[in-house]
Amino acid sequence: EAQVTQNPRYLITVTGKKLTVTCSQNMNHEYMSWYRQDPGLGLRQIYYSMNVEVTDKGDVPEGYKVSRKEKRNFPLILESPSPNQTSLYFCASSYSGQGLFVGEKLFFGSGTQLSVL
Amino acid sequence: QQPVQSPQAVILREGEDAVINCSSSKALYSVHWYRQKHGEAPVFLMILLKGGEQKGHEKISASFNEKKQQSSLYLTASQLSYSGTYFCGTETANAGNMLTFGGGTRLMVKP
């Protein structure tokens, strides 16, 4: 089954304790992206990747890191989480990584609810 | 810069129609529409590309006005299953390969 898999589904941590949220897709998509969702603010893009070893900042990259060593995986790393990073996080992927357009529909993972105390 | 969606929320009775608008201050290449049920991931509805035609399937359709940098989502004869939050996502000329989402429109359909 074609899917984007995120883990964990729920995560409670404390300020400053490094964490990683994993994201994997089995559709051979070039494009992958991370979003955070906060009430009233919609989905805001954190980082995206056009292909292996190619990543770029979105609208809200501060406090986050990503890597794209393999095409299928795009982990989100919080080196020193803070309470303002408490949010619902979504990973997404799509076929298109060429040219200017995202162009193709995004497939979303099921989300990770992160609470930083 | 996020596109602006309106209204922020709407309540309908089954069978009524609704329009959700999405506006951008920048030139748009494409507009995406997604629907999110509570506690679930957003699900793709449709994409409208610059220079393309109005899209639609069944009772949900959308238009893209390139001159006004606006898109509208039309929900006709709404069903209970249409309830959820609707997001538009936009690609603009100066934003690389980013898809920027609006704040969402919460739609509730009542029996």
Task: From the structure above, extract its key features.
heterodimer, A: mainly beta, seven-stranded mixed sheet, four-stranded antiparallel sheet, 49% strand, B: 111 residues, mainly beta, five-stranded antiparallel sheet, 11 strands, globular
What features would you describe in this structure?
- The complex is a heterodimer of chains A (117) and B (111).
- Chain A is 0% helix and 49% strand.
- Chain A has strands at residues 4-7, 10-13, 19-25, 31-38, 42-51, 54-57, 65-66, 76-78, 87-94, 107-108, 112-116.
- The mean pLDDT of chain A is 92.
- In chain B, the strands form two sheets. In chain B, strands 2, 4, 5, 9, 10 and 11 form a six-stranded mixed beta sheet that branches. Chain B has a five-stranded antiparallel beta sheet with strand order 1-3-8-7-6, with no helix packed on it.
List the helices and strands and how they pair.
The complex is a heterodimer of chains A (117) and B (111).
Chain A: E1 4-7, E2 10-13, E3 19-25, E4 31-38, E5 42-51, E6 54-57, E7 65-66, E8 76-78, E9 87-94, E10 107-108, E11 112-116
Chain B: E1 4-6, E2 9-13, E3 18-23, E4 28-36, E5 43-49, E6 55-57, E7 60-65, E8 70-75, E9 84-92, E10 100-101, E11 105-110
Parallel strand pairs in B: 2-11
Antiparallel strand pairs in B: 1-3, 3-8, 4-5, 4-9, 6-7, 7-8, 9-10, 9-11
Number of strands of chain B: 11
Number of discrete helical segments of chain A: 0
Shape of chain A: globular
Helix content of chain B: under 10%
Average per-residue pLDDT of chain B, rounded, comes to 89
Structural class of chain B: mainly beta
